[in-house]
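From the shared-data thread, chain only:
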Amino acid sequence: MNISLADIKKARETLTGVAVRTELAYTNTLSDMTGNSVYLKMENQQRTGSFKLRGAYNKIANLNEAEKKTGIIASSAGNHAQGTALAGTLFGISSTIVMPKSAPLSKIKATQSYGANVVLHGSVYDEAYAEARRIQAEKQLTFIHPFDDPMVIAGQGTIALEILEDLPDVEVIVVPIGGGGLISGIAIAIKNLKPNVKVIGVQTKNMPSMLEAIAQKKIVTCNGCPTIADGIAVKTPGEITFELVQRYVDDIVTVDEEEIASAILLLMERVKTISEGSGAVAAAAVLNRLQEYKNRKIAAIISGGNIDVNMMSRIINKGLTKSGRKVIFNMVIPDKPGSLWKLLQLTAETGANVLNVTHHRESRGVALGYATVELELETADQAQIDAIKYLMEQQQYCVNIV
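Structure, as tokens:
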């Protein structure tokens, strides 16, 4: 089915008063780091915390009365779930959402809070999708596809209209790809209005399903690995979206898990915005994959901010460790009065802040009369860590960094 610019403009009218017109924010941090003028389209500030409300609401608004009356069902890793649940509630329609068991608890609870009945099934989106289709057939519900639907794609395309109004001379737009609905809608609008603007898709290296499909020129199923970008962990691209990406998208790049985690931390610390893994892949690509672009105006889509707080904590701690701002030293000291005090006094003289101390006398492999100490320190950088380690070794401590 063909999707036109007119469909996207109509979707914008439908979404008026429902979807937030999100900010297109210039970022000094990413601009200075890349040599470009980088703007972030803050769909993490959208209602329900991601862009998905746009497509879900537009689809439901275009259902006939019979389809609305039966109730709706969707499958989702989390963001489409919330968008569909809220849209269904706004229309007074009962909704059932099938989510993978691996979906973040925060997304499950949020979906329930918007009024949906949540069913947990499978470990990835595709397994949840199959179960949703089974329930749909059994109960004769109306299926709201997360990406492979013309009205959903048109709704997501409204983002492009806002970008072009806020930044008419944009040169590159960087978009996350899972099933392909977001980039399809954006690419249709962009290539009809400003065909010279480059549209670049981003996937995680752990699940590059659309990239593999484009490379093989046919839809394939990618048996990838788990990823912190759970919102784009789609094994099989859509039929409609595959054709649209082939036709309109200029390039697809991939980013790895460490790059995604670093982008999440950078956005949090320097840009002061919260992004989930799938929301941060565009920023990760701008930082690590677009070196050929200089002095360009780039818009990157921060597609969602629904990150689980436990995942956020792990990402922060890993990022601090990688950047040398936190370290754990493991060492053996004499088990006698004053030994631990002496070690802590030496540490204090370096200016490092002690976060945690663990002292064991019964550690395996440690001789009688000695104890192991694990020091968790807050440090300034790797140079300070190296200086602390050197100082301790000068005092005859055997130091290992955990």
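The radius of gyration is 25 Å.
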